[in-house]
Design brief:
It is built from twelve helices and twelve strands. With 333 residues, the chain is an alpha/beta fold. Bound molecules: ligand PBG.
Amino acid sequence: MTKDLSQTFPSTRLRRLRRAAWSRALVSETRLSPADFIWAIVIREGDNMREAVASMPGVERLSVDQAVGAAREAKSLGIPALALFPFTSAKERSADARLAFDGNNLMCRAARAIKDAVPEIGLMADVALDPYTDHGHDGFLEDGEIVNDRTVAALVRQSIVEAKAGFDIIAPSDMMDGRVGAIRKGLDAEGFERVQIMSYAAKYASCFYGPYRDAIGSSGVLRGDKRAYQMDPANSDEALREVAMDIAEGADSVMVKPAGAYLDIIRRVKDEFRMPTFAFQVSGEYAMIMAAAERGFIDGDRAVIESLTAIRRAGADGVITYFAPRAAKLLGA
Ligand code: PBG
């Protein structure tokens, strides 16, 4: 940051650099490219099915064959990776989340099919029990508490099952203490030392996850809220402690979530740790832009690019976003 006080009007006119598109292009500080995106998709059972998610216009739950199509589309658009999230019906859920450890569950079948058809696309698996528990929490519930250590042991099992299916990035989104170290140890013991861990390190207890819970079938079952394990939106120093611990435990990259309302956290994390830093533009951020654009209150295409550019400018190396294909096309991919 220059502190040169000789920069005064009228010898200095900052508008000179902004006058023409060619000049704006030259002085642009932040570049957005399809290579910055991880495309978040929601998958479901069935064949040749695409099912609209009411609270996320334009997002559909995709059966495995359609998810393979999405992977092909990602490849042709230059999007390097997909993040998969499974819709699970109430009757497939249980207190012990047993479906999470089934190597033939929807996530694993989808990973195998995508890796078979489009092996060069990176695949990220969310690790947490919320798609599988009958109460919609990310861990096991005992006497009204989400218990930590028993949950961590289960997350290790879930991670190994997902790594075996072909996922390249294990992304724990549960916010239990100590899970990154335990997962790293578990993966290595099974010969998966090549598999990355992207930690949802600073994940806030946010209202902006509402549409996602609808998308994966959790909203109907979720009891209470997640404030006993996800972070308080009022906190910032605590995010640095979370990130520091996850790095010490072996995270390859870290994530801040949500993104748009937490740009200050992204900047602090990037400045403090200089780690590969990602941000998740979550379902509610997606839904707000879509809803406002639908009503003509804002220009949707511009909001997509501006929001993603802001997240990159704040310090994110990449963004997990439902807008990935739309943004890639807008960028001319
Ligand atoms: C669950 C999980 C959530 C999201 C990703 N993984 C929601 C939650 O914590 O309740 C949110 C994604 C989104 O809102 O787009 N572990």
